[in-house]
């Protein structure tokens, strides 16, 4: 049975997915339990656009990926197992390390970065 003692490892592995893009994005928070990235400044919204985050919660670790909310077609090809981890429109929750789902999430994140770049939000 998963416990909160697993959460730091889950957080670290999910954070690594986002850290790959830290040079292209802006790190706004980097603590042992929260890691947030913004994309570029949006003229339309007159502020930076939130890209993604990893946060440790009481019962799970959340991976937020805002481009899938902005561009829902990014979710067309995700597996049922990853879809099952979704809460809301852009959040994935984990209580255990799942290398296969983390690899799929890494690919979804790469596609999200590419899409945000095409939309000139980077």
Q: Could you explain the architecture of this structure?
A:
- The protein is of the alpha+beta class and 122 residues long.
- It has a single domain, classed as Aspartate Aminotransferase, domain 1.
- The chain is 34% helix and 29% strand.
- It contains 4 helices and 6 strands, in the order αββββααββα.
- The chain has helices at residues 7-19, 67-70, 80-84, 99-118; strands at 26-30, 34-42, 47-56, 61-65, 86-87, 91-94.
- The chain has a 6-stranded antiparallel beta sheet.
- A hairpin with a 3-residue loop joins strand 5 (86-87) and strand 6 (91-94).
- Helix 1 (7-19) packs parallel to helix 4.
- The mean pLDDT is 92.
Q: Number of domains in the coordinates?
A: 1
Give me the CATH fold name: Aspartate Aminotransferase, domain 1
Tell me, rounded to a whole number, the average pLDDT: 92
Give the helix tally.
4
Overall radius of gyration:
14 Å
Main beta sheet: 6 strands, antiparallel
Unreliable residue runs: none
Sheet-strand content, in percent, reads 25-35%
Q: Strand order across the biggest sheet? A: 1-2-3-4-6-5
Which bin fits the share of residues in helices? 25-40%
Overall form: globular
Quick take:
The chain is α+β, with helices and mostly antiparallel strands and 122 residues long.
């Amino acid at each position: 049975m998963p416990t909160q003692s697993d959460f730091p490892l889950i957080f670290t592995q999910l954070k690594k997915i986002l850290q790959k893009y830290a040079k292209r994005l802006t790190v706004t928070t980097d603590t042992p339990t929260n890691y947030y990235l913004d994309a570029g400044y949006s003229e339309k919204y007159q502020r930076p656009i939130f890209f993604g985050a990893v946060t440790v919660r009481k019962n799970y670790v959340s991976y937020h990926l805002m481009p899938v909310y902005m561009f829902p077609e990014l979710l067309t090809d995700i597996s049922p197992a990853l879809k099952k981890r979704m809460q809301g429109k852009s959040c994935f929750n984990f209580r255990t390390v799942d290398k296969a789902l983390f690899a799929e999430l890494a690919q979804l994140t790469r596609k999200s970065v590419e899409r945000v770049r095409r939309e000139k939000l980077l």
